[in-house]
Write a structure and sequence with these properties.
Elements: H1 2-18, H2 26-32, H3 37-40, H4 59-70, H5 88-99, H6 113-125, H7 136-139, H8 159-171, H9 181-186, H10 191-202
Helix pairs in contact: 2-5, 4-5, 6-10, 8-10
Length: 205
């Protein structure tokens, strides 16, 4: 586990130095985010399970995703044309608005003890046998993420979205993560492990 931890520290350090947060205006961001409300909700709580909650998301991470989608670094068919005209400042302003909103608080499915235990074990300790580091190392024990390292908040997300994201990283359909770290991790997760993690994360806070 020491090798895995050292690798994560290196990733965190390199990511943190690459993205400096400029001044951002959440009030302006609220106005610019009006077109986002249909899929992500007026305050960033999505009404549809295939779309992520944006409320409480790390500003640095969300701004990067907006710019990556705009620039074609991350392909999201549902977002085609939505942010094409966004400037970098627009992206930061919208991200600042959502970062100030109250994050979603979900409830994990608790009637399957094995599912819940596996999800918690993966999140908090990883699986050294499979070479999977603890998710909490990058996303914090509460799932709030680390803004300085551009690591997202993942607590409270819909399981359907979490699973789709993990599958996208595993397949290589999504590649905009630092040092390809999520691809390496996701390829080691079985479908059952993805289900367990997604369920646990829904109720994490």
């Amino acid at each position: 586990m020491k090798v895995l931890s050292a690798g994560l520290v290196a990733i965190l350090s390199s990511a943190g130095s690459a993205y400096a947060q400029p001044e951002a205006d959440p009030v302006a961001g609220q106005q610019k985010a009006q077109t986002c409300a249909a899929c992500h909700g007026p305050a960033g709580i999505s009404p549809v399970e295939i779309f992520p909650h944006l409320a409480g998301q790390q500003m640095s991470y969300l701004a990067k995703q907006i710019m990556d989608i705009r620039d074609g670094e991350r392909i999201v068919p549902q977002m085609m044309g939505m942010v094409d005209d966004f400037s970098d400042q627009d992206a930061w302003d919208v991200a600042a608005y959502y970062a100030e909103q109250q994050a979603n608080l979900g409830h994990a499915k608790a009637d399957d003890a094995a599912l819940l235990a596996r999800g918690e074990a993966l999140y908090r300790a990883g699986d050294s046998r499979l070479g999977i580091p603890a998710c909490s190392a990058c996303h914090t024990p509460t799932g709030a993420g680390i803004g300085s390292a551009v690591y997202p908040a993942i607590a409270g997300q819909y399981p359907a979205y979490t699973i789709a994201t993990l599958r996208a990283f595993a397949s290589g359909d999504r590649t905009n993560d630092p040092n390809d770290s999520m691809h390496d991790i996701a390829t080691k997760l079985s479908d059952a492990d993805m289900q367990a993690l997604a369920n646990y994360l829904l109720g994490l806070h």
